[in-house]
Design goal:
The complex is a heterodimer of chains A (about 170) and B (about 500). Chain A is mainly alpha-helical and about 170 residues long. The termini of chain A are far apart. Chain A is flat, with a radius of gyration of 25 Å. In chain A, helix 2 runs antiparallel to helix 3, helix 4 runs antiparallel to helix 5 and helix 5 packs antiparallel against helix 6. In chain A, about 35% of the residues are buried. Chain B is mostly helical. Chain B has one domain. Chain B has 19 helices and two strands. Chain B has a two-stranded antiparallel ribbon with strand order 1-2. In chain B, helix 6 packs antiparallel against helix 18, helix 10 packs antiparallel against helix 11 and helix 16 packs across helix 17. Chain B is globular and about 70 Å long. Classes of the chains: A mainly alpha (about 170), B mainly alpha (about 500). At the A-B interface, helix 1, helix 2, helix 3, helix 4 and helix 5 of A face helix 7, helix 8, helix 16, helix 17 and helix 18 of B.
Chain lengths: ~170, ~500
């Protein structure tokens, strides 16, 4: 049995090699960040463990696992063709759009540009329109729901749950 | 024990707790029935709404949601070939073919009945095992507790779905994200990058909402065009004869015990239980070829096991503070947020509370059976709810929940960040369960290790004098080494086979 086959048998075969290469690199960078920050922690006085020991240990484990993930991905070459799901069309554009909209929604409230009620009505209406791929009927239902939920939700959270929402 | 349980039943049947159990079970079934919504999502979203509630009512509500959501998944698994929750995947293999050939009512009746039996069998184990286990756990010192948490993390990572390496990676990432902030033992700030918002670390709720809810919203948006037409449920009765249940008795009991046992193992969710029970039922069946084509045995095994898993998973949670499944990690977080210290002393300090949870669990199973039997035809229509209308509203609920925690937007950003992390992990097939459990258990792991080392002059090596701790460490090591040993064994077997051939 070849060494690569043995490694593949032990650690399993990578089914998502492209993603795994990215995952390994991101995890390794994150572990390096942990080590860098842990190095800034002063040594312990009375505590035998100190505050830096666990972050260092976890960073080393992460580096080791990232290396294994990378090796698994590289051993999986030649990489299979990208997955194609024929059952339905995947919509990364809609997913990116909803994330961008969510960031904008939180951002305008954080910056104090809009209060919770107005921002929520806008987010709900636009979010529904985007997820419904701008089909007219759903857009209109979404708009009505947005107004009801925006006003009703604000009243519910502030008057019933006493939450001090962004104004 | 029995007196405690009866007392708890007396409490749970009083109007307010009963209504919470009824509401929780109904909401759970609703969420379980809608593909794209999960029990974890519902429970995480409910936590902020329970801040002002009595702790017992809050946890009773969440345990009922847990029971309902695992059961609700069978509806879409049977009628839509789309598991409402991951634990119903195995039910699709036989439930849908059976429904497609015109036996939808029988498939649903078998699933609902098996869910009830699974839940009740696990309930018996929950009642019988909890007290002795928690008594045993109270004898643990810091090293035993540290070794047990470590074992739990290793088990979670290695038995969770997907590869062991990715499971371990998820667990380690969860621990890493729990580290920033003030270290309570020496007052040192660490890994905060100079951000004062991080002085208290990442709060549990935004992390839970991000990983379980926000990431699911992104996944659902990604798959927004995934639609299917459900099979219609006819007017036939959903109550089966005693003869049918006797025919499936052995399978029901076996699958329930498998589900309970796997539930007790830390971190292993209901989907693994139903897979193991399904595989066992097939290997012991007189007609294994029927599995996957609409076999009644397959449906019974899958549904009995996934519901039994819920009860089994509650055992380590209430006796030792170790989550038996990813959803239990959320429940553990809810306990902490409600100022109830989980762990071996939970029974000693909050015995009535724990028995109320056990009683709520048992009642939720019975209510689940009643609700689903009566209203499954109506519930089946829930699967057609437009996700485009639901997802934005769910996100707004997440935002309010995170913001309400400390009245600061930072927690909302944290939720968004962990939503993206959860989505990226799901895309790379890194399991989310070990991540959340690692995040929840990291604090306990470090605290117990530190306490153990402070109690002795020998430092970490004093653990070698503690047999129970050593046993836990040995199990962890064996779990990690097993794939290597398996590889070596198969290598020698191959060599021997070649020698025999030559």
């Amino acid at each position: 049995m070849r060494a690569s086959e043995r490694l593949a048998r032990i650690f399993g075969t990578s089914h998502t090699p492209r993603g795994d290469v990215g995952l390994a690199l991101v995890v390794a960078a994150f572990a390096a960040l942990l080590l860098w920050q842990a190095a800034k922690v002063p040594p312990p006085f009375f505590d035998p463990l100190g505050s830096a020991a666990v972050p260092r240990g976890v960073a080393v484990v992460l580096l080791l696992l990232a290396a294994i993930v990378l090796v698994r991905a590289l051993l999986a070459r030649p990489w299979p063709a990208l997955e194609r799901d024929t059952g339905y069309r995947r919509r990364p554009d809609v997913a990116c759009g909803i994330v961008a909209l969510a960031v904008a929604y939180v951002g305008v409230m954080a910056a104090g540009v809009l209060g919770f009620m107005v921002a929520t009505i806008l987010f709900l209406a636009l979010g529904t329109a985007l997820l419904a791929t701008f089909r007219r009927r759903q857009v209109l239902i979404g708009l009505a729901l947005a107004v009801v939920l925006g006003i009703g939700g604000t009243l519910l959270f502030t008057e019933f749950f006493f939450i001090d929402l962004p104004r | 024990m029995l007196a405690d349980l009866l007392g708890a039943f007396g409490y749970i049947f009083s109007p307010v707790p009963f209504l919470w159990v009824l509401l929780g079970t109904t909401l759970g079934i609703f969420v379980g029935a809608v593909p794209g919504l999960t029990g974890g999502m519902l429970i995480a979203l409910s936590i902020p709404l329970t801040f002002t509630m009595n702790s017992t009512h809050a946890l009773v509500l969440m345990v009922s949601m847990y029971v309902g959501s695992v059961s609700g998944g069978l509806i879409s698994a049977t009628l839509l070939k789309m598991p409402g929750t991951p634990s119903s995947v195995m039910t699709t293999f036989d439930g849908f073919p059976m429904a497609a050939r015109g036996e939808a009512e029988r498939a649903l009746a078998l699933s609902i009945g098996a869910s009830l039996v699974g839940g009740l069998v696990a309930g018996v184990f929950l009642v019988v095992l909890s007290v002795p286990l928690s008594r045993w756990a109270t004898t643990f010192g810091p090293f035993e507790y540290f070794a047990m948490v470590l074992m739990a993390l290793v088990l979670i990572a290695s038995i969770s779905q997907g590869s062991m390496v990715k499971g371990l990676l998820a667990g380690a990432l969860g621990i890493a994200f729990a580290l920033p902030g003030l270290n309570p033992s020496d007052g040192q700030l660490r890994l905060t990058f100079g951000w004062h918002e991080l002085d208290g670390g990442f709060a549990l709720l935004p992390v839970l909402l991000g990983v379980f809810v926000m990431s699911q919203i992104i996944v659902d948006a990604f798959d927004i065009e995934k639609n299917a037409t459900p099979i219609k449920v006819g007017g036939a009765s959903l109550l089966l004869s005693g003869r049918t249940w006797r025919q499936h008795g052995t399978n029901l009991l076996r699958s329930s015990v498998i589900g309970t046992w796997i539930g007790i193992l830390p971190g292993v969710g209901a989907s693994i239980s139903s897979m193991v029970a399904y595989a066992t039922a097939r290997s012991m069946s007189k007609t294994p070829e029927a599995f996957g084509t609409g076999s009644e045995e397959g449906i019974v095994a899958s549904e009995a096991a996934n519901n039994a898993n819920v009860g089994g998973a509650l055992i380590p949670l209430i006796t030792m503070g170790i989550p038996g499944s990813p959803i239990d990690a959320i429940l553990l977080g809810a306990l902490i947020l409600h100022n109830i210290q989980p762990g071996p002393l939970l029974f000693v300090n909050n015995g009535d509370f724990v028995w109320a949870l056990v009683a709520a669990y048992l009642l939720a199973n019975v209510l689940m059976f009643a609700i689903m039997t009566v209203s499954v035809r109506w519930l089946a229509r829930l699967m057609l709810i437009d996700r485009a209308l639901m997802l934005p509203a769910i996100f707004v609920a997440c935002v309010v929940g995170c913001y309400a925690l400390h009245n600061r937007i930072f927690d909302v950003w944290v939720m968004l960040f962990f939503g993206l992390v959860g989505f990226a992990m799901a895309r790379c097939r890194v399991p989310l369960g070990p991540f959340v459990i690692g995040f929840v258990l990291a604090g306990i792991l470090e605290e117990e290790l530190r306490s153990g080392m402070q109690l002795t002059a020998d430092g970490f090596w004093a653990i070698l004098d503690r047999p129970i701790a050593l046993a836990f460490l040995a199990v962890s090591a064996l779990t990690l080494v097993w794939p290597f040993a398996q590889s070596a064994l198969s290598k020698s077997r191959n060599r021997r086979a070649k020698e025999t051939l030559s």
